Amino acid sequence: MFKSLKNNRGITLIEVITVLLISTILILVSGMAISVFFRRYKVINDYLDLQKGAMECLETIRSGYSMNRGEQFYGVANAKTIEITGVSDTWNAGSGIKVYPPTYADFQLNDMVHFYLEDGTIKVNYIYNGVQVSSAQNLFPSREMRDKMQVTRFSVANANSTGGILSLSDVVDTDLRILEVELEARVRVKDAPLPNQVEYKTINYRTYMVKK
Questions:
Q1: How many Cβ atoms sit within 10 Å of the Cβ of residue 54?
Q2: In angstroms, what CA-CA distances link 132 with 15, 51, 160?
Q3: What is the residue range of 85's domain?
Q4: Residue 78: inside a domain, yes or no?
Q5: Are residues 122 and 108 in contact, defined by beta-carbon separation less than 8 angstroms?
Q6: What is the pLDDT of residues 45-70, one digit of tens each?
Q7: Is residue 21 part of a domain?
Q8: E strands of the chain, at which residues?
Q9: C-alpha angle 160/165/171, rounded to 5°?
Q10: What is the pTM of this model?
């Protein structure tokens, strides 16, 4: 009996230290894996936000910007006339779209909405019911997202200037009906001390918009 008790030595200090070392290593590895997961999750989430914002911007330009909390929408699709504004690095293209909606009263004769690129942001300036908005609104990216998102290209061109969409014989020179719109934007996914080490993810969308 005494011999049996003498052989039951319990846990030694070396065994305890070994267990602690293994546990520490496992915790460190798990922490690194979780950190990598959350970094990748943030990159994916920011990239999805960039895509969503760009698509919503293009849809707003096409279908209309909400005036007076949705009372009316001014956009390319329901425009009376449209005009390309600004300049672009592409031949025969601009960096903005000015939309003139149908008018139903004399005080609406100057109504318009202007979508244009300025300082990496697509902005909206408008006159509604004869009243000029006090300052341009940020359409994309929003004011909250401007610190990490930027529009690098917004090009607007007459899609039928070469007869590629409609026969040139069907086009009235003074009636701009089909626009080719290109939107390129990026989101910062990794900061770095030097500008050339900062990492971005970029999207580029090209679409056509038709005045009905």
A1: 21
A2: 79, 31, 32
A3: 26-210
A4: yes
A5: no
A6: 999 999 999 999 999 999 999 987 77
A7: no
A8: 65-67, 72-74, 81-85, 93-94, 96-100, 112-118, 121-128, 131-132, 137-140, 149-158, 178-190, 199-210
A9: 50
A10: 0.77
